[in-house]
Design a protein that fits this description.
By secondary structure, this protein is of the alpha+beta class. The chain contains 8 helices and 12 strands. The chain folds into 3 domains: 91 residues; 104 residues, Immunoglobulin-like (Sandwich), CATH 2.60.40.420; 82 residues, Cytochrome Bc1 Complex, Chain D, domain 2. Helix content is 38%, strand content 17%. The strands form 4 sheets. It has a 5-stranded mixed beta sheet with strand order 3-2-1-5-8, with no helix packed on it. Helix 6 packs across helix 8. The longest helix is centred in the first third of the chain and has 37 residues. The chain binds dinuclear copper ion. Dinuclear copper ion binds next to loops.
Length: 322
């Protein structure tokens, strides 16, 4: 291959999401398997068509000096090739692809039939994070969506502000989050694991750093997680209220009831912060609280300019919210 072509080819592959966690061809669910099959079938058809065209071009070049068939036979043969390979064959192939994708793929990946799911989770897009609620429980969390493995989960996708798009490439297709609409999406995972996805509709400055993580767990582990996260706090640290954090964030069971930012009742038990942009460790959390605009410019979290003592007390408090 021409060396000058290597960088653009690598860029195309990177942009297509190959070689990372978010690979649409690594299917981990029934719906995503259907999408993967559809991809390979379309790819196979296209590769076959491309191959046939290349062979015909080569034959035309190879036999360019041979005399054409006598008595108008050449013209009739050419008309036959145009009608057969240029009109009839594409119609048959495209109709077959349309029927397969419309009847099978769309059905398998579309909104789940009412009553066919075992768990519903409300996911709401915000600039620039995901609010996650488990209806019928008190559990509210952010960015990290726990689901039980081998369970049909209905995600109800909504937005609190602009259009976002929820997409976990290894589990199902994209689902737009449109103001005033509730869009259902089926999510299920065959094997326990962590499946990442990005917001896939441009929604503002930090669109590219709006990451969602789905954590598929065995049923017992999921039930334990849900029960633990349903617990409220008995009290909130005075520093949290004094610093104004409670105006935007909720600590369930306390006076901190803000709904602008993520629910922080169990923030220390999450593995990431800032919409899964950075790991949730003491150094990152402290940096994030001190200077969120340095970590994620354009995010809605303001710099609070806290005195050192208050800042340290706030770090200590948040790290205890397991
Ligand atoms: Cu949210 Cu892009």
């Amino acid at each position: 291959m021409n060396r000058r072509l290597l960088p653009p080819c690598a860029l195309v592959l990177a942009l297509a999401g190959c070689g990372g966690d978010e690979n649409t061809l690594h299917s981990a669910s029934h719906a995503e398997s259907t999408i993967t099959h559809l991809f390979w079938i379309v790819f196979g058809f296209c590769a076959f068509g491309f191959g046939v065209v290349c062979v015909l071009l080569f034959l035309g070049w190879w036999r360019r000096n041979e005399p054409s068939l006598p008595g108008g036979h050449g013209e009739r043969a050419a008309t036959g090739v145009v009608i057969g390979a240029g009109v009839a064959l594409p119609i048959v192939l495209l109709v077959a692809l349309f029927v397969y994708s419309d009847l099978f793929a769309t059905k398998a990946t579309g909104a789940p039939v009412k009553g066919s799911t075992q768990l519903t989770i409300d996911v709401t897009g915000h600039q620039f994070w995901w609010e996650v609620r488990y209806p019928g429980t008190t559990v509210v969390t952010a960015n990290e969506i726990h689901i039980p493995v081998n369970t049909r989960v209905e995600i109800v996708a909504r937005t609190a502000d602009v259009i976002h798009s929820f997409w976990i490439p290894e589990l199902n297709r994209k689902m737009d989050m449109i103001p005033g609409q509730s869009n259902p999406l089926l999510l299920d995972a065959r094997t326990p694991g962590t499946y990442a996805g990005h917001c896939s509709e441009f929604c503002g400055l930090q669109h590219a750093h709006m990451v969602a993580i789905v954590i598929a767990q065995p049923r017992a582990a999921f039930s334990r997680w849900l029960a633990h996260n349903a617990q409220s706090s008995s009290a909130v640290s005075p520093v949290f209220i004094q610093a104004g954090c409670g105006n935007c964030h909720t600590i369930r069971g306390t006076a901190a009831r803000g709904t602008v930012g993520p629910d922080l009742t169990h923030v220390a038990s999450r593995s990431t912060i800032a919409a899964a942009l950075i790991p949730n460790d003491p150094a990152n959390l402290a940096h994030w609280i001190r200077d969120p605009q340095d970590v994620k410019p354009g995010s809605r979290m303001p710099n609070l300019d806290l005195p050192d003592a208050e800042w340290q007390a706030l770090n200590g408090y948040l790290e205890r919210l397991r």
